[in-house]
C-alpha cells in the first residue's frame, strides 16, 4: 500500500475540513466517554486499514471463480479467505460473507426458504426480538407471517417452551427462529430444535449480538444442536466492520448464495469483506477467547453492582454481555431520561423497551447496557464496579448539574487510562 491511513487523514483534513472536523469530534467523543451500548464495539486498526483500502473501488458481483466483472484475482482470494475462516470458527459447512449488514442478511434467509405469506415463529420485539424478526413496522412483517413467542418475566425471563410448542403446532411455521437483540440470557437451542423437528420446520439462529462469544467458544454454538442456518453481524462482539454473514449446512449453500446474489444484493463491498477476513483471523487467536471470557465476567460484575445498588434488571441478571435496566422500577424515570442523564456524564447507553412495555419506544421503560466495548479498552472488574456505581448514582439522583459535571470528569479520567484501539 503506497498511501497509509495517516496520509489519507492529511488529505481529508486539507480538502474537506468540515467532514474532517466531525470525524475528529467523534474520535474525541469515543475516547473521552465510555460506550456501553451492547451492540457497539471499537474495531481493530487493521480493520480500519482494510475498510479504507482501494478494494472499495472494485465491483465483484458473483462469487469467487464465477464473477460478472474481470480483474478479480485479489478479490477472489480475499473472499475465499474470509469464508474459510468463518467456516472454521463457527464449525459449519458453508459461509456467505456478502450481506451488507444485519437486515439484508436476515431478509436473504427468509427469501431463500419462504414464499410471501409463509409463517415464521420468532421472538416478540418487546421481549428481546429484533425488527427483522417480523416486527409489524418492518417490511418483512408485511411480506411474511410472523408468529411471536415470549418470555416469562416472572421466571427470570425463561422462554415458555410449552407456548412455543403450542404455537408451532397451531401455525406450522416453515422457520423456527431464535435470536435476539435485547435478551440477557443464553438460548436453549436444543429446545427450539426439538420443536422445529416436530413440525418439520427449518431452524434459524440470529446470533448477531453474541457472534464473537460463540466464535470464542464461551457461549453455545447452534450448529452443535443441528441448526440449519445461523446469521450474525460482524461488528458487535466480533469487533469487525459493519456487515453480516450467513452460515449454513451444506444442503442449503446454493439456496442461500442465490438468495444473497442475485436475489437481494448486487455488488458486495469487497473492502468490508477484507475487513471481515481480518476480524475472523483475530477471532481465532487465544487473546480473543480471553477477551470473550472477560466480556462475560465484566457483565456479571456490572449486573451485581447495579443489583446491590437497588437496580432492577430485566430477567434479574445476565448470562451474556448485556443487561437491561428497568429505569422506571429502579428510579421512576423513563429510559429516555436515563439515557440523557448518562450521556451527560459520558456514559453512552440506549433507551430500551422491556417485556410488555406500557410505554412507547421513544420513551420506553429501560436502558440497555453491555460490556464488549469497555472490555476491548482493557477494562476489568474494578472498572465495572466504578461504572456500575456511577450509573446507579446518575440514574437515581442525577439531576444536579454540578454533580453531573464532576462525574463526567471522573468518567473522562478513567477513560484516559484505557485508550480506544486505533486512536
Ligand atoms: N441495532 C442493533 C442493536 O443495537 O442491537 C440491532 O440491529
Notes on the structure:
It is built from 17 helices and 16 strands. It has 423 residues and is α/β, with parallel strands linked by helices. The protein folds into two domains: 54-283, Type I PLP-dependent aspartate aminotransferase-like (Major domain) (Aspartate Aminotransferase, domain 2, 3-Layer(aba) Sandwich); 286-417, Alpha-Beta Complex (Aspartate Aminotransferase, domain 1). Strands 4-12-11-10-9-5-6 form a seven-stranded mixed sheet, with helices on both faces. The chain has a three-stranded antiparallel sheet with strand order 13-16-15. A two-stranded parallel sheet has the order 1-14. Helix 5 packs across helix 10. 50% of the residues are buried. The model has no long low-confidence stretch (mean pLDDT 95). The structure holds D-serine. D-serine (DSN) binds at residues 39, 102, 130, 181.
What's the helix and strand layout?
Blueprint: H1 5-15, H2 17-32, E1 34-35, H3 45-51, E2 62-63, E3 66-67, H4 73-90, E4 94-96, H5 102-113, E5 119-123, H6 139-143, E6 145-149, E7 151-152, E8 158-159, H7 161-171, E9 175-179, H8 189-199, E10 202-206, H9 211-215, E11 229-233, E12 244-248, H10 253-264, H11 270-283, H12 286-308, E13 322-326, H13 327-331, H14 335-344, E14 347-348, E15 350-352, E16 366-370, H15 372-376, H16 381-397, H17 401-416
Parallel strand pairs: 1-14, 5-6, 5-9, 9-10, 10-11
Antiparallel strand pairs: 2-3, 4-12, 7-8, 11-12, 13-16, 15-16
Helix pairs in contact: 1-2, 3-11, 4-11, 5-10, 7-8, 12-16, 16-17
The structure holds D-serine.
Residues 39, 102, 130, 181 line the site of D-serine (DSN).
Amino acid at each position: 500500500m503506497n498511501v497509509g491511513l495517516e496520509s489519507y487523514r492529511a488529505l481529508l483534513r486539507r480538502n474537506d475540513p468540515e467532514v474532517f472536523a466531525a470525524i475528529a469530534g467523534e474520535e474525541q467523543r469515543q475516547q473521552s466517554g465510555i460506550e456501553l451500548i451492547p451492540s457497539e464495539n471499537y474495531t481493530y486498526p487493521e480493520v480500519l486499514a482494510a475498510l479504507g483500502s482501494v478494494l472499495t473501488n472494485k465491483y465483484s458481483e458473483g462469487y469467487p471463480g464465477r464473477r460478472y466483472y474481470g480483474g478479480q484475482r485479489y478479490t477472489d482470494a480475499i473472499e475465499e479467505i474470509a469464508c474459510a475462516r468463518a467456516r472454521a470458527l463457527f464449525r459449519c459447512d458453508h459461509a456467505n460473507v456478502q450481506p451488507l449488514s444485519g437486515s439484508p442478511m436476515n431478509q436473504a434467509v427468509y427469501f431463500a426458504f419462504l414464499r410471501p405469506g409463509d409463517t415464521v415463529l420468532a421472538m416478540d420485539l418487546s421481549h428481546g426480538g429484533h425488527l427483522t424478526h417480523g416486527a409489524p413496522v418492518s417490511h418483512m412483517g408485511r411480506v411474511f407471517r410472523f408468529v411471536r413467542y415470549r418470555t416469562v418475566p416472572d421466571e427470570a425471563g425463561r422462554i415458555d417452551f410449552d407456548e412455543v410448542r403450542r404455537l408451532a403446532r397451531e401455525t406450522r411455521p416453515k422457520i423456527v427462529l431464535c435470536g435476539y437483540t435485547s435478551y440477557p440470557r443464553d438460548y436453549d437451542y436444543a429446545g427450539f430444535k426439538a420443536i422445529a423437528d416436530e413440525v418439520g420446520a427449518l431452524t434459524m439462529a440470529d446470533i448477531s449480538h453474541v457472534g464473537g462469544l460463540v466464535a470464542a467458544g464461551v457461549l453455545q454454538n447452534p450448529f452443535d444442536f443441528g441448526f440449519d442456518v445461523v446469521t450474525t453481524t460482524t461488528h458487535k462482539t466480533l469487533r469487525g466492520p459493519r456487515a453480516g454473514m450467513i452460515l449454513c449446512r451444506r444442503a442449503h449453500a446454493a439456496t442461500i448464495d442465490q438468495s444473497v446474489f442475485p436475489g437481494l444484493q448486487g455488488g458486495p463491498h469487497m473492502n468490508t469483506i477484507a475487513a471481515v477476513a481480518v476480524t475472523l483471523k483475530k477471532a481465532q487467536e487465544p487473546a480473543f477467547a480471553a477477551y470473550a471470557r472477560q466480556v462475560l465476567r465484566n457483565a456479571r460484575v456490572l449486573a451485581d453492582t447495579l443489583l446491590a445498588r437497588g437496580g432492577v434488571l430485566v430477567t434479574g441478571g445476565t448470562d451474556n454481555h448485556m443487561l437491561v435496566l428497568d429505569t422506571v422500577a429502579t428510579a421512576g424515570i423513563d429510559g429516555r431520561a436515563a439515557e440523557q442523564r448518562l450521556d451527560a456524564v459520558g456514559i453512552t447507553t440506549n433507551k430500551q423497551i422491556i417485556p410488555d412495555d406500557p410505554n412507547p419506544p421513544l420513551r420506553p421503560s429501560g436502558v440497555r447496557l453491555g460490556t464488549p466495548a469497555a472490555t476491548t479498552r482493557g477494562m476489568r472488574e474494578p472498572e465495572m464496579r466504578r461504572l456500575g456505581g456511577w450509573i446507579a448514582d446518575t440514574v437515581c439522583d442525577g439531576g444536579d448539574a454540578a454533580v453531573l459535571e464532576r462525574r463526567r470528569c471522573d468518567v473522562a479520567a478513567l477513560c484516559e487510562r484505557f485508550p480506544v484501539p486505533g486512536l
